[in-house]
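Why should sequence recovery work at all? Because a backbone constrains its sequence more than one might expect. Tight turns favour small or flexible residues, buried strands favour hydrophobic ones, and helices have their own preferences. The token representation captures these environments compactly. In the example below, the structure is given first.
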């Protein structure tokens, strides 16, 4: 999205100057942006809690220093539109992991790891006697997946503490930053795209092709029947002219 002065606005609201939490310059910074695409125009609103700096002796304040808290108010989260083949439990876990990410990296990562494991087990039909920790299950399907995707999985496992956490029980809550949780969510969305969504597209294309072929065969059969009927009528007419029974 292209951001310009025409589609972006910002305002700063100074807070209680007696507050001791962020000092006497605490402020809320609200930034809103509309999509530059004329067919979209979706609004994004971010709320930032930080400090401000007074300009001169007037009432103009500007953001100053590092933000203490950043929240996206609108949209709440951009979720993938998943095909119905994705089990509802996996979809729900994905939604929860993404929605909670800005508030708690630990909670989001726990949900995300559980979601990844659910995806692997469901899509690749991992038998009960082959199930273990997430890292082992991922390794068990290495030879069955696209090498490029495997490289992506390996890259994610090398980020921060994510790799070590994949070797733990997915129900165990471990320390993970919000940024690392976002990386796990990106991996989930990649798996959805490469596995479920692509499979659904292939199935749709296959079904469409079969319908076209079925329609084509039906038309050929009907044309053949018409041709046979017309030939039979022609033979009957010729026999009647010769005085012979049909």
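From this structural description, the recovered sequence reads:
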């Amino acid at each position: 999205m292209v951001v310009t002065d025409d589609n972006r606005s910002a305002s700063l609201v100074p807070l209680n100057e007696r507050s001791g939490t962020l000092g006497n310059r605490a402020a809320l910074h609200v930034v809103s942006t509309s999509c530059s695409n004329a067919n979209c125009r979706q609004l994004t609103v971010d709320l930032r809690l930080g400090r401000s700096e007074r300009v001169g002796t007037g009432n103009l304040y500007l953001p100053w220093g590092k933000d203490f808290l950043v929240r996206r108010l609108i949209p709440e989260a951009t979720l993938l539109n998943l095909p119905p083949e994705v089990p509802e439990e996996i979809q729900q876990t994905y939604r929860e992991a993404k929605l909670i990410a800005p508030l708690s990296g630990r909670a989001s990562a726990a949900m995300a790891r559980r979601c990844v494991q659910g995806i692997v087990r469901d899509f690749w039909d991992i038998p009960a006697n082959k199930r273990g920790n997430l890292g082992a299950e991922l390794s068990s399907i290495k030879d069955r997946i696209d090498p490029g995707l495997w490289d992506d999985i390996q890259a994610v496992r090398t980020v921060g503490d994510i790799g070590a956490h994949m070797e733990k029980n997915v129900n165990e809550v471990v320390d993970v930053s919000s940024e690392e949780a976002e990386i796990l969510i990106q991996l989930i969305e990649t798996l959805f795209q490469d596995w479920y969504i692509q499979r659904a597209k292939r199935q749709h294309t296959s079904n469409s092709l079969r319908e076209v072929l079925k329609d084509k065969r039906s038309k050929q059969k009907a044309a053949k029947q018409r041709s046979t009927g017309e030939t039979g009528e022609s033979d009957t007419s010729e026999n009647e002219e010769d005085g012979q029974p049909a």
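A few observations help interpret the result. The chain has two domains: 1-75, 78-205.
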